[in-house]
Design a protein that fits this description.
The protein has helices spanning 2-5, 24-29, 41-49, 61-69, 89-93, 96-99, 113-118, 135-144, 177-189, 195-198, 200-220, 232-241, 273-279, 292-298, 300-304, and strands spanning 13-16, 34-37, 54-55, 74-80, 100-111, 147-155, 161-168, 225-228, 251-252, 270-271, 283-286, 308-312, 320-322. It is globular and about 65 Å long. By secondary structure, it is an alpha/beta fold. The strands form two sheets. Strands 3-2-1-4-5-7-6 form a seven-stranded mixed beta sheet. A six-stranded mixed beta sheet has the order 10-9-8-11-12-13, with helices on both faces. The chain folds into two domains: 58-198, Vaccinia Virus protein VP39 (Rossmann fold); 200-322, Rossmann fold (3-Layer(aba) Sandwich).
Length: 323
Amino acid sequence: MAARLGLGTQSRVIEVASNDGYLLQHFVKAGVPVLGIEPAGHAAEVARGRGVETRVAFFNATTAAGLVAEGISADLIAANNVLAHVLDIRGFVAGFPLVLAREGVATFEFPHLLNLIERVQFDTIYHEHYSYLSLLAVEAVLASAGLRVFDVEELPTHGGSLRVFACHRAAAHAERPGLAAVRAREAAAGLASPAPYAGFAARAGALRSGFLDFLGRARAAGLTVAAYGAAAKGNTFLNFCGVGRADIMAVADRNPQKQGRLLPGSHIPIVSPEALIAVAPDRVVILPWNLKDEIAAQLAPLAARGTRLAVIDAGAPGGIVLL
C-alpha cells in the first residue's frame, strides 16, 4: 500500500479497529506516521508498546470530527474485518469521508457473502457478526456517505474476502478492472434477488447430515475421532450438528488459555496439540478449514503414524475430504 499510494514521512495512515497494532507497526517501521483507533484498552496498550499511537475509542462521525478538529487527516484509512461487527454500519462509515484526505483512499476488508453462499460457509455466521456483506451492499453503504468504490481485490482470507478501495466521490482515482470483475460475479449469481439465498438452509442441513454419517461410520468401525481448532467456526459447526464428547474425544488448540477447558455447548475437552499427537486418534477433523494446509503441516507427526486428517468441504461427496 505504501508503494501503491506513495506513502511516506509526510503521509498518515489511520486504522479503524486497529487491535494490538499488528498491521500499523509495519508502517511505523517504514517511517509512515500512523494512528490507530481501537475501543479495547488492553489491545491499545499493546499497540503503544509497539510504537503505534492509538486512541481508545469507537469510530464514528463524532470521533472523526474530533480528529479533524485536531488537524488530523488520513491518506489511507484501513478497516479490516470490522464492518460485520458494527451494529450501525451507516453511522460507522459516515466518519470516513470526514477524516479522509481529498485524494485519500479508504480500504475495507470483509468476508465475501458470495463465497459464504456458494461454499455453504454457515459456520462463519455467529454472534459477533451483525451483517454478511457483498460488494453490492458495501457500495450502497459507502455511497450513502459520499464515497465511491474504484477497485476491488479478491483475497483468500476467511474462506474468501474482498478488499474494497474507496475514495471521495469527486476524487481522481479511476475505476480498476477488479471492480467490474466482482460486480459481474455477483450479478451472475443474482445476489440482488432472493434466489441464491433460498436453498441455503437445505444445503447447510445436507452438510450436517454428511458429517454425522462420517462420525457414524467411524464409530461403527471402532475408530476414534478428534478435532483441531477450538474457535468460533468450529463451535458453530459442532453445535449445529449436535455432537458432543461421545462423538469427538477432544479438540486440540495451540492457545494455552483454552487448554484444559470445554467447548461451549458440546462440552468436548480442549487439549494441546502435543496431547493430541500423543493420543494418536484414527481421525482428526480440521475445523478451521481456511487454515487446513497450515494445520495439516503442524499435524504431520500424526499423519506419519497413520492418523487420517479430514476437512469439511461442501463441494465434496458427503461434505468431508480425507487429506
